[in-house]
Fold this sequence. Notes:
The protein is mainly α. The protein has three helices and no strands.
Amino acid sequence: MRNVKTFLGIVHILLCLALSGVVLLQQRKQGGFTGIFGGGTQADAGGNQWQRFTGLSKVTVVLTGIFMVTSIILVLY
């Protein structure tokens, strides 16, 4: 049981480092505060929202999801 928690802790730390690196590699958007609050053109509405993400954004979403799952598991376990 202790070995599993140690393994999850190491995976969690590696996820922290990977997530930090991927976030820092992304280019900054020039939209200012409009991008934060959901502002955009009418052409952005509708369609498959997943296609709007770049490769690094998709990796960020996946790593964030795994990070949250490991966080919850480490708290509850």
